[in-house]
Amino acid sequence: MSFRESLTSTVLCFVSFYQAPLQANDHPNVILMLADDMGVGDTSAYQDLTGNSDQDQVHTPNMERLARMGVRFVDAHTPSSRCSPTRYALMTGRYPWRNRLKHWVLFGAQGDPMIERDRPTIATLFKHAGYQTAMVGKWHIGLRYRRSDGSPAAGFEDADLRQPLFDSPLDHGFDHCWITSRSHGTSGPQPNQKKNGPNQKVGPGHIDGRTVIGATNNGRQIAKEFPQAYILKDLGERHSDNAMNFLTQHLEHDETKKSPFFLYYASNSNHTPHTPSDQIDDVPVAEASRSVAGEPMDRRSDFIYENDVALGRLLDYLETHDDPRKPGMKLLQTTMVIFTSDNGAEKNDNTATGPLRSNKGSCYEGGHRVPFLVSYPQAGIGDGNHTTSGQTNFSLMGLQDLFATFADLIDQPLPNLRDGEKGAEDSFSVLDAMAGEPIPYRPMFFNDHKQAEDHAACAMRFDELGLRGEAPSLWKIFFEAELLRSGTAQSTELYNLFTDLQETTDLSGFEPFNLQRGRLAMIAELHRNVGGHRLVEFASDERIRFEFGFPKKEFDGPHGQLVVDQIGDHFDGQSISGVNIQSKSFRGRSLKMTISAAVNGKTDDDKAVADECQFRPNARGLGLSGGEFDQVESGESLQIRFDQDVIVESAAIVAGNGVCGGYYTVGDDSPLAIYCTDGDIDAQDQSGILSDIGVLKAGEVFTLDSRPHYGVESPGRWRLHSLTIRLFKSVE
């Protein structure tokens, strides 16, 4: 079977919308192994689909073993074509561009944490259900260190590595973690490198929980002696040993063995540089990879093979140890084991990516279609027998779906988005698909496209059944970066993957497809702007954009289904005690917004504050008069309320000649860093609207604060240009 032949079966997977929930006696253990930069052509488990020759294909016998034991997905995708955003989506069930990262990865030795403290993750999901949770390997979703006085560090330069980390995986649901901060080549200096000095800027090396285990008394220099030293070629063995130690200790201790476990194993391989370990558990790795034809392979293949050996070690352990909760039953039967990758291969050739176009960093299929293998015999997800042929599944799925899938697996409810809870906004369970049942379909996004002028461009998949005997369509439409940066869909390319999996024929220039492009653009704008796929069912088409620029612009009033209210003149010189704005949607539904302000948390109840500070709108937006400039600065903040529940789609904040900084909160939720339409806080340009703020309950406060996020960064100085909200559907 080839990828092309599999597409017919893909269509059949969403003919029926019946969902039969799986029945399981007890919660299973879960092991999720995530490879780095591994394409579908990098494993012999997919060789029949890629068509790679035996001479070119690296042999991965344990991945084949897992595929035969369980289920092989052939239409599995990462939500981004790069690692940090995919890892964020995997952990949170939310597209990464709903956070601040519109493209690229977290850069530098720290990288401001992408996940706020109170956002649910798959680890918190398991932990709240009574699991023991652990992680080994690559984190790359952001850390925060401490200064010598214990306060949060602004970055790596003022970090005291002897202090426990302020923010690590332990703050996001894991009981234990043994990690590298990011890709292994940039997570720390090796012992004898010149860069390993007191002012090194590479990274902290090994992290155990909150502890930088290689920290010394010589600034940021990392220890040079084993086992604290950071040695690239030892990482594969080290991660595998840490994983096995966690499993062994879990089974040996009375206080843990009665609980299920969740292990997130995020391998550093096979990201460059290719540094395979000499061996893992006495199994040779370096120079040990072989092609399916039996010939020695290159160093990159050795690094791929390292993943296979580590996976095999896990499977061997599960196969030979009983589950203490179920005497006589092996862990292999009671454990869901998943193997997948964070994006496509870093190498663009016909072997690593198979027949797919492009590779890592691209929204073409080679950048985000990845291997996905899963086994859980007790629940009918495979039979656990590695001598059978295994099952192949053609359902469309994304790694962001694992949050909802795990919730389904362990009978935990998803966060109630309509009631203002957050979490798993873009996640849908594929548990039934794993068991061979059809699942409903919905749009799916992929972002970070190096072929575009602005890499924040994205693509959307939208599949349709053929009607009246017509062939089905697996639409894939590409959009300019404006969709993610400002919420406006401008399409650039269109493909039908059912007939053109290699994306060779762009249909966007053909007139018969103009109507289709317009319809897909409307679907894309809805799902991009509404705050999450799961919010679509609650959201109406009634949107209001409040424009604070002064004087008014020409497009006053309704703008399609979006009502644009020019309200800057309502604020000029008004007291910060509060300005009330009455507005109506295009259907005539009324809404009241109240905006007030504060200085260092003090409102106009403090007379000195009231006397010194007034609203000051101009062409760039709404500012305040209490600081040196008529912007929001010097501890000033805007506080926004509505008289009914709304979805806050976005706030457009303009730095202008000011500074992009500060934070925002919704009610009592944890703060998140502000970014602007013309500035950001990351290494590459993440500017755009402050989007996907979420549900704001009636009377709840949405605060935009110019003060430093953690009290140590530069404060902000900016204006609020516009605010876009969406009403909920009326309850009849």
From TrEMBL:
<comment type="similarity">
    <text>Belongs to the sulfatase family.</text>
</comment>
<protein>
    <submittedName>
        <fullName>Arylsulfatase</fullName>
        <ecNumber>3.1.6.1</ecNumber>
    </submittedName>
</protein>
<dbReference type="InterPro" id="IPR017850">
    <property type="entry name" value="Alkaline_phosphatase_core_sf"/>
</dbReference>
<dbReference type="GO" id="GO:0004065">
    <property type="term" value="F:arylsulfatase activity"/>
</dbReference>
<dbReference type="Pfam" id="PF00884">
    <property type="entry name" value="Sulfatase"/>
</dbReference>
<keyword id="KW-0106">Calcium</keyword>
<feature type="compositionally biased region" description="Polar residues">
    <location>
        <begin position="181"/>
        <end position="199"/>
    </location>
</feature>
<dbReference type="GO" id="GO:0046872">
    <property type="term" value="F:metal ion binding"/>
</dbReference>
<feature type="region of interest" description="Disordered">
    <location>
        <begin position="181"/>
        <end position="208"/>
    </location>
</feature>
<dbReference type="InterPro" id="IPR000917">
    <property type="entry name" value="Sulfatase_N"/>
</dbReference>
<keyword id="KW-0378">Hydrolase</keyword>
<feature type="domain" description="Sulfatase N-terminal">
    <location>
        <begin position="28"/>
        <end position="410"/>
    </location>
</feature>
<dbReference type="InterPro" id="IPR050738">
    <property type="entry name" value="Sulfatase"/>
</dbReference>
<dbReference type="InterPro" id="IPR024607">
    <property type="entry name" value="Sulfatase_CS"/>
</dbReference>
<keyword id="KW-0479">Metal-binding</keyword>
